[in-house]
Specification:
290 residues; mainly alpha; two-stranded antiparallel sheet
């Protein structure tokens, strides 16, 4: 009879095989994209470059793979994740998938730009360029599959922090005013250009993903409360306050209204500061009297 260790090894092997298969499928799609989009010799970075085609392909593969894993594997392995209302599940799937896709787009574009700077003047023919597009697409599909299959609140925090950082930097790099930082941070979200679009989309998706993180945290806290006999008011307090943080982050855009931006930004600071106090108060209220 197989031992528990053998069962775990078999499960890990099956999971790794699934990730590798998804990666190969992503590389195959990248191969088609590269052959279709690249017509001749191209630079590594810039308009019409190998890096641009690779970044767009990575965004598509990362998003599609994330949707596939979240809709199939996560519902099967985390029943509570799939038992929530349809609109809530759809919001999680869309938010997390776009975060993985756009993070791949930003990082791929930046990586090819670095290579272009390191190898000044280099250009690759259609087939060499297609190879790198396929490699980037396969890697994106593999990483997205591995990341979301092992999804937890803690593991989600890392790509979320990376997405927020990279998104803001991408917005800053494309800002029409290079001295935006001399005034205020939220100026990146003003206007209708690429910089403001990237900035506002980054905040919107970060806020949506924070709502998903809250669900993981609340689920873990609920299990802890049941196991220890802790009052559920503490769990409810955490869920409500962190949900407010996520909603405020998603809505705090200066492009719609300066007044409402200031109100929401100040509310975000207040809610974030009050969260530990509300949690402490809820726990104290649950403590037995003398």
């Amino acid at each position: 009879m197989p031992t528990p260790a053998a069962h775990r090894a078999t499960g890990a092997t099956r999971a790794e095989n699934a990730h590798a298969t998804i990666g190969v499928a992503g590389a195959a799609v990248g191969l088609v994209v590269g052959l279709s989009a690249l017509r001749g010799t191209a630079a590594l970075s810039g308009t019409g470059s190998i890096g641009q085609v690779a970044a767009l392909s990575v965004a598509g593969r990362g998003t599609a793979t994330s949707v596939l894993v979240l809709v199939t594997d996560r519902v099967r392995t985390m029943p509570w994740f799939g038992s929530r209302p349809l609109w809530r599940r759809a919001l999680d799937v869309v938010g997390l998938s776009l975060i993985h896709g756009l993070l791949g787009l930003f990082l791929t574009g930046a990586l090819f730009a670095v290579f272009q700077q390191a190898f000044q003047g280099v250009a690759l023919d259609r087939f060499a360029g297609t190879f790198w597009v396929a490699a980037a697409s396969g890697g994106a599909a593999y990483i997205a599959s591995s990341s979301l299959t092992a999804l937890t609140g803690r593991s989600l925090a890392t790509p979320l922090a990376a997405f927020l950082t990279v998104g803001v930097l991408a917005s800053a790099l494309s800002a029409p005013d290079p001295y935006w930082w001399e005034r205020y941070f939220s100026e990146l979200g003003e206007g209708t250009g690429a910089s403001s679009t990237i900035f506002n989309l980054t905040l919107l998706l970060t806020g949506i993903a924070l709502l998903t993180v809250v669900e993981f945290i609340a689920h873990d806290l609920d299990r802890w409360a049941r196991a220890t006999g802790e009052d559920h008011r503490a769990v409810t307090a955490v869920r409500v306050m962190l949900t407010l943080v996520g909603v405020l982050v998603a809505l705090v855009s200066r492009s719609v209204s300066v007044l409402w931006h200031d109100v929401l930004a100040q509310s975000l600071v207040v809610v974030f500061a009050l969260t530990p106090l509300v949690l402490a108060g809820a726990r104290c209220a649950a403590c037995p009297g003398p």
